[in-house]
Amino acid sequence: MKSIPTFLFYLTGLLAVAGAAETPRSEKLYGLVLHGGAGVIDRKALTAEKEAEYRAKLTEAREAGYTVLQRGGTALDAVIATIVILEDSPLFNAGKGAVLAADGKCELDASVMDGRTQTAGAVAGVRHIKNPITLARAVMEKSPHVMLSGDGAEQFAKQQGYTLVPNEYFQTEERRVQLEKAKQREAAKKSARLETPDESHLRRIARYGTVGCVALDQAGNLAAGTSTGGMTNKKFGRIGDAPIIGAGTYAANATCAVSATGWGEYFIRVGVARDIAAQLEYKGAGLAEAAAVTLAKVASLGGDGGVIAINRQGQVTMPFNTTGMYRGYRLSNGKNAIAIFGETP
Amino acid sequence: MKSIPTFLFYLTGLLAVAGAAETPRSEKLYGLVLHGGAGVIDRKALTAEKEAEYRAKLTEAREAGYTVLQRGGTALDAVIATIVILEDSPLFNAGKGAVLAADGKCELDASVMDGRTQTAGAVAGVRHIKNPITLARAVMEKSPHVMLSGDGAEQFAKQQGYTLVPNEYFQTEERRVQLEKAKQREAAKKSARLETPDESHLRRIARYGTVGCVALDQAGNLAAGTSTGGMTNKKFGRIGDAPIIGAGTYAANATCAVSATGWGEYFIRVGVARDIAAQLEYKGAGLAEAAAVTLAKVASLGGDGGVIAINRQGQVTMPFNTTGMYRGYRLSNGKNAIAIFGETP
Q1: Using CA atoms in the order A286, A245, A94, A198, what is the torsion angle rounded to 10 degrees?
Q2: What HEC string does A74-137 produce?
Q3: Which of A77, A177, B63, B227 could in theory staple to B110 by disulfide, Cβ–Cβ 3.0 to 4.6 A?
Q4: Among B118, B144, B237, whose Cβ lies nearest the Cβ of A148?
Q5: How deeply is A220 buried, as exposed, middle or buried, from its count of CB atoms within 10 A (0-12, 13-18, 19+)?
Q6: Measured between CA atoms, how close is B272 to chain A, in angstroms?
Q7: pLDDT of residue B207 exceeding 60
Q8: Domains along chain A with CATH numbers
Q9: Residue A91 CA neighbour count, 13 Å, CB half
Q10: What pLDDT was estimated at residue A192?
Q11: Contact A174/A187 with Cβ under 8 angstroms?
């Protein structure tokens, strides 16, 4: 497992962490961090125009959540407000613009956790819910369950008064092209007598992100949420880390709120979000230190991605060990940033 | 949340822990622990004949796994061998004899994790797989994924050469009666204008267990597995803790192997299996101490259940905060037990 590429991932992870934002402790600080996915973001392919679009949408989403906090709203409301905007944008792999599964349909996962009560909600494999993050919240607040899946989750949505949208609402031309390319690569592999997609292929198609937000409100409560369209050319009802409480999402007032993005299988195995919180809880680690240790674990197994986290003192971190992660934060002390590559925000 | 019942749960948890087995450290010790579910097990309703049946089946399953270990087999093989026997028995809520969902069908979840590689596999909501634990293992070993769900998981099974069984294979008369009773209670609640099932109702129907096994082999490797039929009268594609890596199942050679059973929603929120391992990893806690702390967390939120765990030194623990937990263990130093109620095994 300790191959040279693994070592490079590890190193990249540490460098990314070195660029993470760390703010001084303050009782009354509030704010939020958001991400729009980590992965191979090609600097050359990202035109100035496209980059401006990403930055504008990340800013819009951040400000929507921040306004909730500024007006005294809850961390949970801020997380939802931010994620809904990212879901509604075709730029990100969540809600509209989600990647296409092998059958050409979008299949969406989302989860949310309230740090105040440690209650949580998640949905996996829904196909007709415009904003899966709001359904995850409904599961948390209106059902005795944490996780609902597939058609059953949509039956619950109908009971809750949701209007289902046709799957075509989510589908975009860009994602159809990505699916076609993925299928061509898969076919090429098969004709080369490789029965299963190899790791480098998976590495490429796993890179189309996720969105997430973590927030600390004026009352000192934390919340976290994550939403995704999963993997291009996904088969077999695969569930990644985004709807798994403890992997893609975790929040507890006693520790921190975390949302993850990356190669889901590795994030589940490490239990990324919970692992970061556990280091704060059981060894008194700092937030940035804990996130770095956890991402290094992911890298040591061969995976990659990034996380965003905030604690009750308003410290934030947003490390990643990929070439880029769409991300940003804003705190009530005025500190804020929007970033894509390894620049120190 | 800190009601009197909660306090009692907490206390029962500690008492159960006090009765847990703890063995001296030894490099070459190997063995396994298994459970057949924790819940309200009524001493009076459990006839001597029925109790003997449970003890015999638990013993048979334990010996099947132990034999694998004794012959130098892997912890993973031992876990599968043990769980397959529990799945095949109608006595436990897993495989044959699983509880029925609201639509009268059995819907099965399982997961497995190999502590040597920290690889994991899980299936959720399968309806035609005789031994879901073996499919969880196939997901781990033959797919690039960790978690597959529903029809998709069964498509993968077919690709792997599985023969699907009709859902009727799993269904038993006893479980049909339980479903009818659950539906009658639900209807009574609704006619009493209570729209959602209340907690005490959920508490009852959540109690029909899960099966699991954790093992340490002669090479010093750990593995854990869990399999369940979920909740009686289950709706909306609900997914509990059993197929969630970090909640129902976790194994890492560096810490321990854990399988959980109980009220799944609370076990997901706490991330039970990973939380126990995290205490060993980050604060050097003992296995029994860590399991007790984690179960106390579950209790403080209002949930209950039990766990089994083993570490690389062959220490074992099997605490619960319900009236009983079908459980047993056997170690290569000769120590062994089969137990149901709070007796010190």
Answers
A1: 90
A2: CHHHHHHHHHHHHHHCCCCCCCCCCCCCCCCCCCEEEEEEECCCCEEEEEEEECCCCCHHHHHH
A3: B227
A4: B237
A5: middle
A6: 10
A7: no
A8: 6-339 (3.60.20.30)
A9: 24
A10: 61
A11: no
Minimal Cα distance from A125: which residue of B? B149
Q: How far is A68 from A71, CA to CA, in rounded Å? A: 5
Return the number of CB contacts < 8 Å for A and B: 154
Q: How many whole angstroms separate alpha carbon A325 and alpha carbon A305?
A: 8
* Beta strand extents in B204-341 (DSSP E only): 211-216, 222-228, 238-239, 249-251, 256-262, 305-311, 316-317, 324-331, 336-339
Q: Which of A210, A226, A261, A322 is catalytic?
A: A210
Single out the catalytic residue among B82, B134, B210, B323: B210
Residues, chain B, total?
A: 345
Residue with tokens 């459990």: B46
Mean predicted confidence (pLDDT) in A15-42: 68
- pLDDT score of A148: 97
User: Could you tell me the maximum CA-CA distance found in chain A, to the nearest angstrom?
Assistant: 61
Q: 3-state DSSP: chain B helix, strand, coil percent, rounded to 5?
A: 40, 20, 40
Higher confidence at residue A8 or residue A262?
Answer: A262
Query: Amino acid identity, residue B98?
Result: A
Question: Which residues numbered 223-242 in A keep a CB inside 8 Å of some CB on B?
Answer: 235-240
Residue A235: closest C-alpha in chain B: B152
Tell whether the model's pLDDT for residue A200 goes beyond 80.
no
* Chain A residues closer than 8 Å to B125 by CB: 149-150
Q: Within 13 Å of residue B101, how many CA atoms lie on the same side as its CB?
A: 23
Encoding tokens for residue B257? 């192997």
In angstroms, the first-to-last Cα distance of chain B is 32
Contact A148/B237 with Cβ under 8 angstroms? yes
Q: What's the rounded Cα separation, in Å, for the pair B189 and B198?
A: 8
CA A290 – CA B230 distance, rounded (Å): 34
* B328, β-bridge pairs: B34, B338
Q: How far is A214 from chain B (nearest CA, A)?
A: 17
Res. A9: pLDDT tops 50 = no
Q: Which of B125, B197, B274 sits opposite A144 (nearest CB)?
A: B197
Residue A147 contacts B where some CB pair is shorter than 8 Å: yes
Q: Are A176 and A191 in contact (CB under 8 A)?
A: no
* Residue-averaged pLDDT of chain A: 88
* Mutual angle of helices A287-301 and A272-283, in 10-degree steps: 130
Helix then strand then coil, in percent of chain A rounded to 5, is: 40, 20, 40
Q: Can you give the length of chain A in residues?
A: 345
B274, A271: Cβ pair inside 8 Å?
Answer: yes
| Residue-level pLDDT at B9 | 40
Residue burial A79-106, b: 16+ Cβ < 10 Å; e: rest: bbbbbbbbbbbbbbbbbbbbbbbbeeeb
Please list every residue in chain A whose beta carbon sits closer than 8 Å to the beta carbon of residue B236. Answer: 143, 145, 148, 152-153, 155-156
Q: Are A233 and A182 in contact (CB under 8 A)?
A: yes
In whole angstroms, give the CA distance from residue B229 to residue B175.
Answer: 11
Token look-up 């079908």 returns: B326
Q: Which residue has the tokens 């937000």?
A: A213
Establish whether A210 is a catalytic residue.
yes
CA-CA distance, A314 to A224, in Å (whole number)?
A: 14
